[in-house]
Amino acid sequence: MTELQVKQAVEKFEALIREQSARSDKIKEIGDAVDYSKLDKIVIGICGGDGIGPEITKRSEEVLKFLLADDVKAGKIEFKEIEGLTIENRIAHMKPIPDDVLEELKSCDVILKGPTTTPQAGDGMPNIESANVAMRKALDLFANVRPVKIPEEGINWTFFRENTEGAYAVGSKGFNVTDDLAIDFVVTTTEGTNRIAKLAYEYARRNNLDRCSIITKANVIKTTDGKFLNLCKEVAKDYPEITTDEWYIDILTAKLLDEKRRKDFKVLILPNLYGDIVTDEAAEMQGGVGTAGSANIGKKYAMFEAIHGSAPRMVQEGRAKYADPCSMLRASVMLLSHIGKQEEADKLEKALDFCMFEDKKLTLTGRDTGCTCEEYAKYVMENIK
Ligand code: IPM
Ligand code: MG
After folding, report:
1. How many helices (H) and strands (E) are present in the chain, helices listed first?
2. Mean pLDDT, the chain, integer
3. What is the pLDDT of residues 194-206, one digit of tens each?
4. What residue ranges line ligand 1, CB within 6 angstroms?
5. In what order do the strands lie in the sheet with 42-47?
6. In the chain, fewer beta carbons within 10 Å around the N or the C end?
7. Domains and CATH numbers, the chain
8. Closest ligand 1 atom, CA of 305?
């Protein structure tokens, strides 16, 4: 390694520290969460995304429009379709979210977003940050809330994944110091941790859930995970009626498979990367990643999406029309609940539970051995009572 390489690396690190410190200061200035009941009109943005995204998003939009027909007629809710959040357009602009698309997104209150393709090192696409990750940062969507339930086993988990920090904060800004040395960074801030912890505990309190589990790897990632753990434990003190326990991420992934213990978990609070990984595992247990929705909540904006990716292989193999819309329909349940349409949210959730777990008249296999995405969405709609 040359002295120049050291100097260049230090300069890059300095820039990251300044950027993250400024971000941390900015969080302190953010006011209260928006009260949707006080808005004259709620604008719901619809973004199809890539791969199977447009198909599953369109079907969910139809279901939402069906449920919200009266509000749309009365001008209280408006749907706004947003084009341009595609991998082609992002590459053309060399930006994770082209400026005009970001402006459109910001003109909405909440967004339903289909999965977007994320370039990965070595796949031939330019190194553009994931649109998801960029949107979470640009709209400061600090909480990723992912429910997973398996009613017949008594499992009802809600994951509160921190959504703007951890390994993701500067995930695309790590660097190769030399040909032999690559470095990435993990970021934890006080404000960033406090706000996810408070949201999780408030949720537990509101829903009479008596247990919160804090998940880290603080025995190894001592500084950032250690800070996350300690701050969550501080927040826990304000919620004495809730039992708090701590788990390391490795044993937690095992315990979620332990049939005797796993139903004891209720609310789980995790740094970004662990939340990403574990929620795929949990969703798979529920019936596949295609069945789980995800809410990205900030104080001003919120975005709702599937927890899975854009499945380009399904499109290449001509199977997009067999994609499972349940993830986006679950996301739609969360969207409805978030904007105060609890009755509509409950109706959709009931219909989904009935179709997915009880009736099972139609099944999705991802290919022509099962029903299509459109047929399934219709099936759910028919069961909305
Ligand atoms: C998710 C996804 C994203 C993430 C990808 C697409 C960048 O896996 O929402 O869980 O890692 O957060
Ligand atoms: Mg993920």
Report:
1. 14, 12
2. 95
3. 999 999 999 999 9
4. 118, 130, 132-133, 276, 307, 309
5. 77-82, 42-47, 110-113, 302-306, 293-297, 143-150, 155-162, 267-270, 211-216, 243-248
6. C
7. 33-141+298-385 (3.40.718.10)
8. 9
